[in-house]
Amino acid sequence: MAGQNLFFSKSDLAYAELRDRILFGTLPAGSRLAQYDLAESLNMSITPLREAIRRLSSEGLVTVETHRDVRVSVMNSNEARQLFEVRLSLDPTAAELAAQRRTDDDIATMRAAVDKLLPVTRQWGEEALTAHRAFHQALYRASHNDVLIRLLDDLWDKSDRYRRLGLELPPGDEPRTRDLQEHHQLVSLIVDGRAAEAAQLMRGHITHSLTATAISALEDREGIRGT
Length: 227
Known about the structure:
Blueprint: H1 2-5, H2 10-23, H3 35-41, H4 46-58, E1 62-64, E2 70-72, H5 77-101, H6 104-115, H7 125-141, H8 146-168, H9 177-191, H10 195-207, H11 210-222
Helix pairs in contact: 2-4, 3-4, 5-8, 5-9, 5-10, 5-11, 6-7, 6-9, 7-8, 8-11, 9-10
C-alpha cells in the first residue's frame, strides 16, 4: 500500500477510502459524515477530504446539505431501478462480445473465477459477493471493450449497496443454486462462441438478481407500486 501511495494524492486516497466505506456499508446510508474526525482517522487535513467529498457528491454517493453537513446518500428504489435498467442493457452486450472476442487467457480466467463461486446468500456474505464480482469482471474483460468495462465496473460498485440490502431480505437465505448454474452455463456459451444465447442468458440472470429483489422491497417501503 505504501508503494501505491506515491502515485496518489491525499484527495485520491480519501476518495477511495470513503467510497469503499459507503459501498460496503461501513458508513450507512443516511449517516452524517463527521468530517474532522474522518480527516484525523485518515491522517490528513480537512482540505483533501473535502475534495474527495465533492467527487463523491458528483457520483451521487453523498449529499452536501451545507458546507459542514454531509450525509451518505439514502438508498431508494429510483436509483436501484436505474442501475438495474442500465445493467440489463449492458451486461448482455458484454456477454455477447465476450463470446465473439474471448481469448484463451480470457477463458482460463473465467473458468478459474467460476470454480471459486459461492452461493450469493446471507450465509456466505462478503466472500460470495467478492467471488461473484471477480467472475463478472473476468467476463467483462473478455469483451475487450474498454469503455464498456469501465461503465460496468462503475455500475457494479454503485449496485453493491443494493446487493447487500438484498442479502438482508428473505431471499437472502435462499440457496440461489439457479445463479450458480447460470454462471457455469454462461462460461460454456462464451467458450463455444454462442453469442446470442449468452446475451439472452445474461439478461435473465440480471432479471433475477439481488438488486431486482431490493427494488421490490424499496418500492414497498416507499409505498410505490412496481410496474
